[in-house]
Request: fold
Amino acid sequence: MAKELEGELVDGYRRRSAITDAILADFRAAYEKRITKEDIFYYVYGVLHSPEYRTRFASDLKKMLPRLPFTREAADFWRFSQAGRDLAHWHLNYETVEPWPLQEHHNELLSDPAKDFLVQKMTFGRPTAEQKGRGEKFDKTKIHYNARITLTGIPLEAYDYVVNGKPAIEWILERYQITVDKDSGIRNDPNDWAREHNQPRYILDLLKRIVRVSLETMKIVNALPPLNERR
Reply:
């Protein structure tokens, strides 16, 4: 973070930089004097999304965070830093970004938002004959939100955004379903939050928003430059 933000109170928390002055001095010596700790933070975030970085350090990433390389050119430093800023925008604001315009198909007339948008367990569509021929078990361009609503037009490239080994879209399908713990009998109903906050479309629009976040993320990641590491 920029020096002027150090120690600032944000939502009751005092901001502290995890980037040391020594690291800042190293980056300034390597590139430009105008670099701030915030620039370095976003550079790191950008590099961590680099497919080249993840492939090269795949085995190390399973155990620890490997060292971060210095790019050869200052221009590449700024490209990674800007990419990190852009990625952070989408990842931090996933609940408020404009939903991706998926098509909503209503099997029956929707008249009661309090009930029409309730979710029990979202599922992918059944595969077409062509998809079955390719060995696909589901039609991932289609999601049955509930018995009343089906979403279609999901771009398959949205599934390229993977978080902890699973596409972000699939995390939403897994987490936002009604479950009952076998041992305690406690019922987890993701609709409760939507009811309490009078936002009946929250889960539906969240799914659309995650599609947008996934697509925007992959657009940025696919445009990242080579690491061109300094030797």
